[in-house]
Amino acid sequence: MELSILINKFNVKGRLVSLQPFGNGNINDTFLAIYRNTFTETQVILQRVNRNVFPKPEIIMANMHEITKHCHEKLEADAKSGTDDRVWQMPRIIKTKDAKDYVTDENGDVWRVITRIMSAHAFDVAQGPEHAMECGSALGHFHYLISDLDPTTVKDPLPGFHITSDYLAKYDATLKTKQAKALLGASMEAKRLAKFITERRKLALCLEKAEKKGELKKRMFHGDPKVNNIMIDDVTGKGTAMIDLDTVSPGLIHIDFGDALRSICNPAGEEETNLTKVVFDEDLATAFCKGYMKEAGTFMTDADREYLFDSIRLLPFELGLRFFQDYLAGNVYFKTTQPEQNLNRARVQFRLCESIEARERSIRGVLKKL
Hints:
Structural class: alpha+beta
Shape: globular
Strand order of the largest sheet: 1-2-3-5-4
Helix content: 40-55%
């Protein structure tokens, strides 16, 4: 089906004047559609939900319906109070002409149209402490919005996602294969990384154990709070929206908190080969945490706060574990351009984890003051 015919099934006012590929996302096929009439211009996003990543896209859309409905109602109520220092935004689902949330094409693919967050854009890397603070504010406010959303109303789009014990079990199974044994036997660096994992196995389960003991409460988390999913207002420079809601799931907010800091506070990036450049940036971390706690502090418990440092240390370990397991398995999950790439990615994450551990006292001190 031609895209212009497909998008015409959605209820967008005006005449379609442009429909072009948009953004640099690597999951869903995304297009920007521009509509105009005599007085106004409307820009919307057309997307095909990737079945390879989300085998049941209908679940993704049902989740998005519940999440956006809940958040928009809360945003409207808060806007009336006039207490916020900015206008918070969130994408809205554009209905089809027969009042549905999506269209299924002749190939069985699910297509949706959502509103575009206007006069705002995202960055690929942290621009400095002020930007990091706004990223923290945006994530904290998003967590506030979904903090009272009943987790049972949303189905898990990616079962097993961010379950560290499952990743460890997969790693243990991989270790038993001939290929993994050969790679470990041929590389001192691989042996070092395996030892790194062994030394931190108990620490890696801290959040899961805290949840089982009832110390931490399962709420909702975004699932992919990287910096380029955080929209910054072009005019005010303030965080205005979290986008890419496909991975929003029932779980611990600590996953998002740790993952956001993992990506924002490592300016060297995931592909750096010189490990001396991989350092956890405390200035960026402090700024992010200030912004986050300002928005999320209203609903967080003392126990939530107690485990924040653990989440900062855990997420680099978890991603490093996944990279290393994939390297030992023959690079079957993460895309690579050369055989040692996942090994080096694991080295970077474990080095970041070490950098965080070396700064534990200082980081805990910052968190305690917020």
